[in-house]
């Protein structure tokens, strides 16, 4: 995103940025002046009291840095609920666990929609690492759901008792810290953050053996310099989720690609993206602790991790095809009949969810299940498992 102009920081933001920078400088000095990008991303997003998801700035919605699908319109949650209801019937349980619930909008839409279908969730757990987001979610859920909010519980860790039902991970895996790498002149280099003459810089060092082997296994074609990323935490994340799923489906919803497309020779800069005040750019060193850092999901890696964890890949498709298959058009029609609705706003939000140039194609939905028969409704129009 060359030429993106970032807005100036407020006085409070400048103060926070100074505290983040002081802590990061100290971390770099103690590490000898350089840390791998994965360690920098972990710090920038999750450092207690300083990282983007650990501090108190508003992140979601019009007043935040980006808008996720559940914040755009309840239609997204209604379609998810349609698919979850089918899973409830096959899994022998009606529990839901949502990872990283954002503003709480998805939880509210799913709970309302399931109750309206006569398939109310018995329990809705939210696993949220951010204390600030947890409090905002709690306030929104209780204000929106009233008595139904009693079904919602917040967790500090995965439940000890495996659940039967559905797990939801919407825009979660893209926030796992990644290793950045460069292929230059046939060499594999590990990218990281250095402190040089008092300034932060992205620099490269020879890749350790394990990273070099992982990158070479990708068999990226071409002789030109190439940069991208790997997510070493992805297999462990899926394995941990698998251990808490006795029966049902984990739905992963995120932007990403199958491996062959992710590491295509034409994608020479990778997928790292930063978000601040609804501006997307690629400068990871700007506004550290005050902007989101994300990387697209390698869905082939997710499928491989699921297989290793004993989960079945039950479906993989684009967000647009999933939403259409789970009744988006019907739900949109019903929403448009409500007298107090702004019809233009409703249609605009639906278009953002569905159109290829918006979220419709870049975002994918993957279903990873245990003890659940296929096919699932959301993958009936188009199933892309063959591309993995």
Give a verbal description of the structure:
About 35% of the residues lie in helices and about 25% in strands. Strands 2, 3, 4, 5, 10, 14, 15 and 16 form an 8-stranded mixed sheet that branches. Strands 1, 6, 7, 8 and 9 form a 5-stranded antiparallel sheet that branches. It has about 400 residues and is an alpha/beta fold. It is built from 13 helices and 16 strands. α4 crosses α5, α4 crosses α12 and α5 packs parallel to α6. The mean pLDDT is about 95.
Summarize the structure.
The chain is α/β, with parallel strands linked by helices. Helix content is 36%, strand content 24%. Helix 4 packs across helix 5, helix 4 packs across helix 12 and helix 5 packs parallel to helix 6 (131-145).
Alpha-carbon Rg, integer: 21 Å
Strand percentage? 15-25%
Task: Characterize the main sheet.
Answer: 8 strands, mixed
Q: Tell me the helix content.
A: 25-40%
Structural class, by secondary structure, is alpha/beta
User: Which oligomeric state applies?
Assistant: single chain
Query: Helical segment tally?
Result: 13
Give the beta-strand count. 16
C-alpha geometry? globular
Mean pLDDT: 94
Distance between the termini: 28 Å
Regions with little confidence, pLDDT below 50 for 5+ residues: none
Q: Order of helices and strands, N to C? A: HEHHHEHEHEEEEEHEHEHEEEEHEHHHE
């Amino acid at each position: 995103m060359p030429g993106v102009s970032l807005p100036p920081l407020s006085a409070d933001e400048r103060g926070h940025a100074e505290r983040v920078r002081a802590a990061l400088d100290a971390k770099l000095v103690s590490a000898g002046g350089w840390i791998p990008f994965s360690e920098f991303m972990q710090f920038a997003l999750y450092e207690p009291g300083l990282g983007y998801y650990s501090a108190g700035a508003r992140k979601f919605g019009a007043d935040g840095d980006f808008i996720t699908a559940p914040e755009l319109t309840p239609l997204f949650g209604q379609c998810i609920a349609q698919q979850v209801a089918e899973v409830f019937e096959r899994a022998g349980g009606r529990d839901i666990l949502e990872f990283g619930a954002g503003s709480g909008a998805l939880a509210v839409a799913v709970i309302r929609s399931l109750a309206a279908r006569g398939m109310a969730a018995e329990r809705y757990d939210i696993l949220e690492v951010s204390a600030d987001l947890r409090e905002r979610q709690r306030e929104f859920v209780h204000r929106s759901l009233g008595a139904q909010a009693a079904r919602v519980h917040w967790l500090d860790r995965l439940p000890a008792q495996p659940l039967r039902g559905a797990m939801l991970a919407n825009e979660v895996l893209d926030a796992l810290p990644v290793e950045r790498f460069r292929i230059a002149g046939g060499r594999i280099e590990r990218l990281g953050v250095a402190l040089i003459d008092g300034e932060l810089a992205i620099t490269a060092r020879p890749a350790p053996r394990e990273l070099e082997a992982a990158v070479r296994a990708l068999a990226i074609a071409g002789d030109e310099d190439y940069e991208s990323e790997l997510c070493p935490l992805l297999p462990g994340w899926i394995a941990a989720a698998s251990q808490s799923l006795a029966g049902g489906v984990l739905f992963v919803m995120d932007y990403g690609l199958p491996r062959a497309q992710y590491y295509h020779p034409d994608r020479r800069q990778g997928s790292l993206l930063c978000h601040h005040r609804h501006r997307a750019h690629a400068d990871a060193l700007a506004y550290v602790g005050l902007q989101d850092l994300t990387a697209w999901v390698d869905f082939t890696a997710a499928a491989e991790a699921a297989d290793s964890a004993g989960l079945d890949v039950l479906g993989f498709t684009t967000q647009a095809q999933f939403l259409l298959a789970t009744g988006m058009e019907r739900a949109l029609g019903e929403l448009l009949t409500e007298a107090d609705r702004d019809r233009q706003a409703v249609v605009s939000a639906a278009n953002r969810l569905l159109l290829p140039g918006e979220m419709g194609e870049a975002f994918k939905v993957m279903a990873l299940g245990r003890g659940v028969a296929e096919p699932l409704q959301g993958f009936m129009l188009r199933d892309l498992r063959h591309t993995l």
